[in-house]
Write a structure and sequence with these properties.
Layout lengths: L4 E7 L3 H10 L8 E5 L2 H9 L6 E9 L7 H10 L9 E6 L4 H9 L3 E6 L4 H18 L13 H10 L7
Parallel strand pairs: 1-2, 1-3, 3-4, 4-5
Length: about 170
Amino acid sequence: MNDPKLYILCVEDEMDVLDAILRDLSPFESTFQLEGFSSAQEAGAWIDGLDPDADRIALIYCDHVMPGQRGVDFMSELQRRESVVLKGTCKVLFTGQAGHQETITAINEAGICHYQAKPWEPDELVELTRKLLTDFVIAEAIPPLPYMSQLDQKRIAEHLHENNPFQDA
């Protein structure tokens, strides 16, 4: 198999906020496919059209409070899917409004790996994204070379040193 096409998805119903997220994540566009959606339904339909032999969703940023379907419910639905394109996906819930029970649901049922408060600092969002993409590549044993310019190179080097794939060659 060729190197998979790795995606970063952003789901946010407020267009100005979605535009800000996509703008802040634009440094990753040279290596990762960046996609924005204004609803969970739109994102879900798009995910259904991905090629399981070539596409992987590395990271999803999703707003919590959206019309139609809450972010935590959408993430829970994705967690239950048995799709190769979603295997190991890092999920981040964007919110300033989640309550205690919603937080528990997000962790227990949706596989959320991080909460991101609104408003956010662009530099912090970039660093979080770099960390989570690096986590994804390492956890999913994806050859990191095509994505190195956007990953935490020190962590990748340490991982490769500790798990030398050429040791027995």
